[in-house]
Design goal:
alpha/beta; 7-stranded mixed beta sheet; 10 strands
């Protein structure tokens, strides 16, 4: 069993350096790495050249067309039995491929995904953002948590599938939440994506609150896109951030007239603070996690509500037709 790790890159040379260092430390060497530079103005060729001969490494530079097209470009040049995808801002534990090999031999899975976590070397902000994106209190555990409100869906920060799956389903489509789209197509083709809890990556995520807000806001909007593509795919858990936005806004306004109205919101934020402080063993990180959790919920929730109003209620413009064309593969 050989793995082809495919990584699209856009102006992330420093992150690629850390990723390649983690690959060089792998205990299982049965893999190749394919770096696809998607039109970067700050290329990572130098970083890749530094690891030439350490492990099988292919570097390609192409015009900027988007991360999904870059992944497909890498797939076309891969030799592995399994196609594995991580983001350029990830670091792999030394036993990543060893754990993956054991898990696939035990489960026989054709498609898999794994959770992400924060490395000890990450900045406090990166750790707080990681909590906001992985905690059951904020996402319902749908990104690989031990308790989940919805079926696990592999995402491209830690995802893979066999060549058989690729030959039947095809590659990624250039769109927001392309990984969820891919996972949905794989499931509908009769395969069952498996969560491999021991096959985790360290995910650095965004380096500023502004970028984090923008990212989760787009995630919220893309959930409506997925509903248009796959009617009935939207579950209650996907509504929760939007309900938080409406509910917390109502409590804040209500507290103007009745001060105790704010208590449920404060108790929820206190629960986040306590849980985060315990899990990260830091009161400071617990306080930061409250901020990042509010940003995550409000960013996603407002994006969800915005797209719901524009695309479903108003049925505005090219959006619906665009989703139909994507679904047809145009």
């Amino acid at each position: 069993m050989k793995f082809s790790l495919i990584v699209p890159v856009f102006n992330r040379a420093d992150e690629v350096q850390a990723l390649l260092e983690s690959l060089d430390a792998q205990t299982d060497r049965g893999f190749e790495c394919i770096i696809v530079e998607d039109g970067s103005s700050l290329p990572c060729r130098k970083q890749c050249d530094n690891f030439s001969g350490h492990f099988p490494l292919k570097y390609f530079h192409k015009d900027n067309e988007g991360r999904s097209i870059a992944r497909n470009y890498g797939i076309d040049r891969a030799d592995g039995d399994y196609l594995v995808f991580v983001d350029s801002d990830c670091i792999l534990p030394p036993d990543y491929f060893a754990s993956l090999r054991r898990a696939l031999e035990a489960t026989g899975a054709d498609c898999f995904g794994g959770p992400d976590a924060a490395h000890d070397s990450f900045t406090p902000l990166q750790k707080a953002i990681n909590f906001a994106m992985t905690s059951f209190l904020t996402t319902g555990g749908i990104r690989g948590g031990k308790v989940q409100l919805e079926k696990f869906v592999p995402r491209t920060f830690n995802m893979g599938f066999s060549r058989e799956v690729y030959n039947r389903v095809g590659g990624f489509r250039e769109m927001f939440s392309e990984d969820i789209d891919m996972s949905t197509r794989i499931r509908r083709a009769g395969y069952a994506p498996v969560l491999l809890r021991d096959v985790r990556v360290y995910h650095k995520r965004r380096v500023s609150l502004r970028k984090f807000w923008r990212q989760v806001h787009v995630f919220g909007m893309s959930r409506i896109t997925l509903q248009l593509l796959y009617p009935g795919s939207m579950k209650l858990v996907h509504w929760l951030p939007a309900l938080f936005v409406v509910g917390s806004a109502a409590l804040i306004v209500g507290s103007i007239f009745f001060v105790l109205a704010i208590v449920p919101l404060l108790l929820y934020l206190l629960l986040i603070f306590i849980t985060a402080s315990i899990s990260m063993k830091s009161l400071r990180l617990g306080a930061m996690a409250v901020v990042t959790s509010v940003i995550q919920l409000w960013g996603y929730g407002t994006g969800f509500l915005r797209a719901y109003f524009l695309k479903i209620i108003l049925r505005r413009g090219r959006n619906i037709q665009e989703e139909i064309e994507i679904r047809k593969g145009k």
